[in-house]
């Protein structure tokens, strides 16, 4: 089976019994992909991850970090937060999907039950992906608006009609790309990713032409919320851990396209971690040195009008790459957790249906762009707990073994039925992790307890959810429909 | 979700059997060396950058 034969337009909704149709169904996530059907080696997955990570959200997060701390503490917060978040997230998702080629939310049936995985999908993917699609589309719109203003010598209007039209266009273009399947996404990634890395390095060079490293390290935060510098530093780490954990809904389904377990794991540290760190540091330096955290504004300030137009134009379209990656993984997951009726809906129609709410958000609620980091940190309250449960379940309870027949066969009366398709132990652990997070740190108000200053919120949430899931499962998960956990 | 044809179930069985066969072959698997290296890298980055600023 070649890559091309399984990656054409996605209009067929069910396998018709031919080898090609089974392979196409597997690519959509209905069955485990065989090693021979996987598209990506180390290089391709690294490019894909880089394209996903280095997109303009990295600039946004870097700029947000600059609100809390200066560049020196910001660099440390970016590295510490991202390495912890990315490593825990990748362990929880990519190792199992890389080993078995299984779709991430299908694998999640082993942790939450077949209906529980639907709840998790609804909470973690639909809300997050729709929010990110809208934010990235708005950034595309603002970039186009800024670009045309620069070219014409006019004034940018970030909330104007031109921005909204461009944002709508970005979402619709993304839908067209994803409708053509992962091969087209791969082509986009291979072009956009290396060019973005070069663009980042160019931006860094331009910043260092204006400011020495020592000058940058001596700069202060733009708008620190507390007088306590240590607390601001921990919040900056927390924002970056949230960024690391925010890959949870996506990287598992990208990793299943890789050829083996190692190839599914290590590129995350080069692509997701390395590229995100580079992009965030550029965003941080630019924001602090130019006094504005919005990349659609500082980019022209750094690069000048001519280069700024080119850079803004490229970054605008780079958003499309990120949007395509997250939309693809979200829809692959949606088909697995959806009802039979939903699975009969054509791939293109499903894609369009998923894009409706982001379209509405981009047009009617453009203000969410400016508060995006609050939204990002809220998602970590859930994603950190999911990572903890995933690690506890796959590594410590199942010892890295999944039952592919039980995951993909009939679910009623199967090994992962639990109670009516819900694993109450996993879901309870998820609630414990979420409550732990919000008790330690409220992303909305930044209110926190003393322990947050030493522990952060994501790490205790991850640990608490994992321990509760492990402990309760060891004590209570007995019987044929309770997950088929190995004994002893 | 439970409405599956015999052909589809046979395909799932075929794919699962292939993974059963390659289960014993450790090629491409994460090993103890990978996990130790990962732990060391993470610790180094966290401790190093923490010490740099605190």
What is the secondary structure topology, with strand pairs?
The complex is a heterodimer of chains A (488) and B (54).
Chain A: H1 19-27, H2 42-53, H3 56-68, H4 71-100, H5 104-107, H6 109-112, H7 116-152, H8 161-179, H9 182-210, H10 213-218, H11 229-245, H12 248-255, H13 261-265, H14 267-290, H15 295-337, H16 340-344, H17 347-364, H18 372-397, H19 404-408, H20 424-440, H21 452-455, H22 458-476
Helix pairs in contact in A: 2-9, 2-14, 2-15, 3-4, 3-11, 3-14, 3-15, 4-11, 4-12, 4-14, 4-18, 7-8, 7-15, 7-17, 7-18, 8-15, 8-17, 9-14, 9-15, 11-18, 12-15, 14-15, 18-20, 18-22, 20-22
Chain B: H1 6-22, H2 32-53
Binned, the helix content of chain B reads over 70%
Largest sheet of chain A: none
Radius of gyration of chain A: 22 Å
Mean pLDDT of chain A: 87
Rg over C-alpha atoms of chain B, rounded to the nearest angstrom:
22 Å
Number of strands of chain A: 0
Task: Determine the N-to-C terminus distance of chain B.
Answer: 54 Å
Which stretches of chain A are poorly predicted, pLDDT < 50 over at least 5 residues? 1-14
Going by helix content, strand content and strand pairing, the class of chain A is mainly alpha
């Amino acid at each position: 089976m070649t890559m091309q034969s399984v990656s054409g337009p996605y209009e067929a909704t069910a396998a018709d019994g031919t080898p090609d149709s089974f392979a196409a169904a597997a690519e959509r996530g209905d069955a485990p992909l065989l090693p021979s059907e996987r598209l990506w080696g180390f290089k391709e997955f690294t490019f894909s991850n880089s394209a996903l990570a280095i997109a303009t959200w990295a600039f946004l997060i870097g700029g947000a970090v600059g609100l809390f701390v200066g560049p020196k503490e910001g660099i440390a917060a970016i590295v510490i937060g991202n390495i912890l978040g990315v490593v825990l997230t990748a362990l929880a998702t990519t190792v199992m999907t890389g080993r078995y080629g299984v779709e991430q939310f299908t694998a999640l049936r082993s942790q939450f039950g077949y209906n529980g995985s639907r709840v998790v999908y609804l909470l973690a993917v639909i809300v997050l992906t729709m929010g990110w699609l809208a934010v990235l589309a708005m950034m595309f719109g603002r970039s186009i608006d800024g670009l045309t203003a620069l070219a014409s010598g006019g004034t940018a209007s970030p909330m104007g009609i031109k921005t909204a039209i461009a944002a709508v266009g970005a979402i619709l273009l993304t839908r067209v790309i994803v409708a053509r399947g992962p091969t087209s996404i791969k082509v986009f990634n291979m072009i956009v990713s290396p060019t973005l890395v070069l663009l980042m390095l160019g931006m860094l060079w331009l910043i260092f032409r204006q400011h020495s490293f020592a000058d940058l390290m001596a700069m202060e935060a733009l708008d620190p919320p507390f007088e306590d510098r240590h607390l601001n530093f921990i919040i900056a780490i927390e924002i970056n851990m949230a960024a690391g954990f925010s890959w949870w809904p996506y990287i598992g389904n990208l990793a299943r396209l890789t050829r083996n377990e190692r190839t599914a794991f290590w590129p995350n540290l080069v692509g997701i971690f390395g590229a995100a760190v580079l992009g965030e540091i550029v965003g941080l330096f630019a924001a602090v040195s130019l006094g504005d955290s919005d990349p659609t504004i500082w980019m022209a300030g750094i690069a000048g009008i001519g280069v700024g137009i080119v850079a803004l134009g490229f970054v605008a379209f780079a958003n499309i790459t990120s949007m395509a990656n997250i939309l693809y993984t979200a829809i692959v997951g949606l088909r697995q957790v959806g009802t039979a009726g939903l699975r009969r809906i054509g791939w293109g129609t499903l894609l369009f249906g998923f894009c409706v709410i982001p379209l509405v958000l981009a047009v009617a609620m453009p203000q969410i762009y400016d508060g995006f980091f609050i939204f990002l940190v809220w998602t970590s309250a859930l994603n950190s707990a999911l990572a903890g449960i995933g690690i506890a379940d796959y590594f410590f309870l199942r010892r890295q073994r999944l039952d592919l027949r039980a995951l993909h066969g009939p679910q009623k009366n199967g090994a992962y039925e639990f109670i009516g398709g819900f694993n109450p132990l996993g879901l309870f652990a998820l609630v414990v992790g979420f409550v732990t997070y919000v008790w330690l740190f409220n992303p909305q108000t930044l209110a926190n307890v003393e322990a947050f200053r030493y522990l952060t919120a994501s790490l205790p949430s991850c640990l608490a959810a994992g321990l509760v899931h492990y402990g309760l499962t060891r004590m209570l998960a007995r019987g044929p429909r309770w997950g088929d956990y190995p004994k002893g | 979700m439970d409405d599956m044809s015999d052909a589809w179930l046979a395909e799932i069985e075929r794919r699962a059997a292939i993974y059963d066969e390659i289960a014993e072959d450790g090629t491409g698997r994460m090993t103890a060396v990978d996990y130790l290296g990962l732990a060391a890298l993470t610790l180094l980055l966290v401790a190093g950058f923490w010490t740099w600023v605190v």
